[in-house]
Please model this.
Amino acid sequence: MSRYSGPVKSLYDNFNLDKKRRKDISITIFSFAAFYIFFPITTGVPITKFADKLGAGDFFYSLLIALPIFGNALQIAASIILEKTKKRKSLFIACGIVARLSWVAIGLVPLLVLANNGSNAVYYILFFMIISSIANSMLGVGFFSWIGDLIPPQMIGRYFGLRESIGTIVSVTATLLVSIYLNNNTSYESFAIVFAIAGVAGIIDILGFVFITDIPMNVAPRPPLKAFFKKAFASAGFRRYIIFWSLWAFTLNLSVAFYNLYALTALELSFIKVAVFGQIAFNSVAFFAAPMWGNALDKSGTHHVLIRAGVVSSIIPMIMLFSTKGSIVAFLLFSIFNGMTLIGINTTAQKMLISTLPQDNRTMYIAIYSVITSIATVLGYLTGGVFLELLGDVNFHFAFIDLDRYKILFSLSGLLRLAVLIIYLPAMTKMLDEK
Model:
């Protein structure tokens, strides 16, 4: 803990936070460590290997990755419930526990179902993913509105940078241990154990919020839903904000889910190599990059960070053009640069979500943002899966590069992101950079 007490204490001292506020913020930072046991298991290499063991094709795999996002479409309903009940803390904790327990059930499905009726196992898995996704709809609007009330706006960038940095240490350790275990144990019992651990860690993360001050929600009278949508989108700044992040979410997620699958299948890398040179390399670099981007956000603004991190993030998929079967070099370089830049973009999105939206009816603005960008994310996943299925086993030689369907998808995704930056980033108003 002493490794982190310096930067944490320094952060608090810079803003003269009282003891109670320091305690609350510390809990949100260190409970995130438990989340970073849950997150890499349910979204990283383990779920990729699990899908491969179930015999999932590209589209079914993209569906497995996309399903946890579907529930975000309910965030408008979640916002309405929060504003009417004002029970943000209790709803956040209850829904969070349900969402995380569902992953314990997902791990148990193959043990309980496959032996008797294997064809139905995937449907049970999809069912529990939907339950988890629906419960998650309350977490997004609840967390970001809560954090917005808890943390001074001037320290939000450094807060998220420090939080991500600490979380990545745990993520690296968890990913390494789980990868070593699954590399030697690939039975359904092994996956059940791993997903059970993920579910329990996720619940521990949620339970940390039991001890955080339940700040009363500042809920201003909201016009009818139709009138509120009209009011929100009447703002040119809000429209540009939504357009930019939706296009970014779509173009990023065209390919992001398929890098690990490509490494496991086409590149024929072992499970442990994909984990170490992919997820662990990504998180190791992100550990050092996160505070740097957080400081840059607070000092130089979002436009500064997005230009630098976004351009590099858009170009690095081209590294995968030079990947060859059995070699880890291109995959490792991609993971390093991806960890360096993607953490900056994610931190920027989190800060903007809190600091640039209106104070009144904030949960509804967050819900609108989450619904639209989540739809874009899901469409990105599914479009990527369909694109790969349509291309089939296409392979051809261009210049000195051997191209396959995955390399085409990775390149397309990067070029589209670059186009989004060039066309739409300047259109985001100064108002959305710093308040």
In short: Residues 308 and 341 are 8 Å apart (CA to CA).
